[in-house]
Amino acid sequence: MSKFVNKGFTMIELIIVLSIISIITLIATPNYLKYRDYVIEEEALTVGKGIYLSAVDCYFINKKSDLKSIKEFIQKDLGSSVISVSNEGSAKESYLEVKYNYNGKEYKCLMDLEKNICEIFYLNSKSESLIYKNY
To answer: Would residue 7 be called left, alpha or beta, if left means φ above 0 and alpha means ψ between -120 and 50 degrees?
Structure first.
């Protein structure tokens, strides 16, 4: 008579473990993707706030109000990809619109440096949505 020694796992046990892992993955993946998008938006918001602070620094401390100087100062200070700096048709030198890219998405920072107002928008092809406002 030969003895049969049971070593290893049965097929049913392996299938159950794989099913549990699959269910956990199905539940966790959407939450991970939402959190990743949230972190990217918060990082873009931080860059926008940095752009605002650099513009304030350039405008008040360095006493430079021309758009070219402000754009160069922001790029030097933050190293971020600023697309454009404009006054958006305003006669006030303290009112600026700065467009920048972060992680392949485009954002816009509207600021009034004298009134200490900053608004940051996420721009997509159809609209813009406000993600930060300080008053």
So the answer is: beta
Token pair listed for 60? 């008040």
- CA pair distance 133, 115, nearest whole angstrom: 13
The pTM score is: 0.74
Nearest one of 103, 115, 104, 105 to 52, comparing CA atoms: 115
Enumerate the domain spans of the chain: 12-134
Cβ atoms of residues 122 and 107 within 8 Å:
yes
Tens-place pLDDT, residues 2-18: 677 777 888 999 999 99
CA dihedral (135, 96, 100, 105) positive or negative? positive
CA distances from 6 to 12, 17, 42, 55, 121 (A): 15, 19, 55, 73, 64
- d(CA 82, CA 71) in angstroms, rounded, equals 7
List Cβ neighbours of 82 (8 Å cut-off, separation of 6 or more).
Answer: 51, 71, 74, 75, 98, 99, 100
